[in-house]
Amino acid sequence: MTIIQLIVILCLISYIDNNIYLYYTEDSSSVEFYDCIYQENFLYCRRPIEPISLERNNNVKECYHNGTLHTFSSLQSNKSNINTILHKWKSSLEKVEEYSRYIKQNLNSIENFLCECSHPQSFGKYCEYLLPYGTTFTMTLNWENQMKFLYEEENQYYSDILCYKTLTCNSGLLCLDWRDICDGIQQCQLGYDEENCDKLEFNECEYDEYRCMNGMCISREYFLDGDYDCMDLSDEIQLVNDRLCIYHEISMECDDRICFPNTWSCGDGQCIANRLAFQLKYSKETECNNRRDQYYMCEIHANRRQWTLSNGKCYFVKDFLEFNSQNRSIEEECIYFTKCAFSMGLEKNCPCKYDPLCFEEDDTESPCSSENIPYPNGAIIAPYLYFIYNNTPEWWSKTPDYIQLIGTIKCRGYMINREMTIPYISKINLKTIEAMLCNSTEIIENKGYDINCYNNNHSSYFLHICNQSKECISQYRINDGYINCADEMDEQQNQFILNYRHDRFQCSSEESIYLSVNNLGDLIPNCKNNYDEWWLGKDMMLSQMKCNQNSKDDCKFIQQYIANNHENSFVELFTTKIPFRTYCDTFWNLGSKYDENIELCSKQWICLDEQWQCHTGQCINVTWVLDGEWDCIDASDEESLFFYNHSFSLRNLKVISLDLLKDKFESLYGITKQPFSKICNLTTEFPCFRVNASNSLYNITFERPCINLQQIGDKRIDCIGGIDERNTIQHCNYPTMLGNDFLCITSNTCIDKSNLCKIMCPNPLDNHLLCSTVLLQP
Questions:
Q1: Complete DSSP assignment for 383-451
Q2: Which of 93, 116, 143 marks a domain boundary?
Q3: How many domains are there within the chain?
Q4: Which end of the chain, C or N, has fewer beta carbons within 10 A?
Q5: What is the pTM of this model?
Q6: Which domain holds residue 109?
């Protein structure tokens, strides 16, 4: 089959649903992939580890799984329709094409056959494959992702770590992910993974092209068009929920994505800021959902008991039995004992079940004889970095005592070999460690990265951007909102980026910061005037603007917002406009919050017929009523629902019946379901610790922990933590509502709900009944 024919077929069949099309099914002496299914512009193929010889000529002439065998001559005699064979029989495209040639060229002397796969789950050249679930490939993929979600531990146990094998090198215990190549960090001994990266780093794009952050060029028409085209996603402002990549089908946003600078790849499209976040007991930082950040050191997770399998993956099952446990060496016994201690005896034969202190007692003999214990037993985080524990550690803390650096690092102009031990640091910055090692005088070879940063070959070059740490980076990295030099000098420059500035966002004429577009609307302020998060610093949140795959309404506005900010020429075009129905929808779409003005909403606003109207006049989706979360700012969709007569309005009872409201309310907020039900009158009062209450739980009879339901959402804080004003107070750290987080009132700091009582307020006065408040949170 020719390439042109294949492309035509793929374009045609992409519009046909629920059919399986198999191609690349022909045998060959050297095959890298075969038997591919085309699904939503992606190929799902069988891919052997190495090229194989494929010989599957079916001399027996058999169709498996009760498939029906048809000879070409019988098909021709019966005048079988080629379209029916192609779209219904689930054979291979090559077989269909072979039959097509047979008819057109009158090849009667060549007798061959074709299989009709009649079993609803079978498909293939000889109907040799069976779908494990459903009758379409889409159903199988959805089922597979659902199984990953439901059976997380089994997914760890019955799968291997995905590795990039095109480049073979010593990367330590954990193999390379393809995203590790040219990410600015040496993941291979001798720096093999960072060689020849200058070709992309110093790449120049044409005038009609947009230069992605990593140096890739795309047509300018694709810049801010709502669809990702750069592999690093730096051509759009929309945020990606990459935590779900592990459960997604193949997509560019996950499978073809590379991570931003200073983040670590989880191997499936998720990127995290701190590789060792899992070691922090009360951290709010994100971990890899697939646990790749924890592989080979699963036992030292701060909050989860896990066991490292022989392939490095993390598994949790009580009394898990490790295979090949006989005839361990002394070193292996030490590692086994260490894993038992850190996991609190998770493996079946471990001593001291579920008691980390037991491992520190004198009668529990440790097989570890050396002064220090390396764990894991190999390089981790980087191919030259090892975690070291004292032989008498506090097993419950799981924190290493030292970091040992042993290996060869490639530097600018030379290579060094270094062995040294430093105290453990909780957030390891490999750029800083590499810079420290490269400043050593222990040079072993003059074969490092180009000492002149490839200046002879590239025009976009500044020799001394990283004055101290000496990395080679292009001028496009200057003041882009990401630190690329270990000495951070790339974000402290005053140099002008003439040929790039109109694609980047300048905060103001007073700030020499030219942000990449993906910094806009990311809920992390980079500009002093907040222009990168709010339209002109005061009106609409940029994160709320619609320039994504679902809606491209605001793409042109954002393009012009970036283009005009350099000359401060914000014309009347930029007078803030928001869609009509975003008024009174309970979400802040304007910096002034005027779109949720209660006087406007309660007196003048009319909801759509299918919406529920709050007592405040705001409109919400009917499925949000009595779902356990406040959507109306006065809780008139939850606890206050029967306090206000609005619930019985004719328009509201049309979208949800009174009987259903009563049943749902009773199941959520019945007298036995709420705290202080014997103290507060729950028909008119909301239970919470009042801000003026004494510092004692024993006075609740006299200082009743109750406020009037009418006080909810009145913009005056009456409850500790601001829980009564969760939808009227702005969050301390984000331009959003407080939500279910806890407000430390005197210091105006916020604590994530999940960390209540684990993290305390800066001012002890705010810790007044803080730990008890968690009992009242939804």
A1: TTEEEEEESS--TTT---SEEEEEEEEE-BS-EEEEEEEEE--SS--HHHHHHHHHT-S-EEES-SB-T
A2: 143
A3: 2
A4: C
A5: 0.70
A6: 3-143
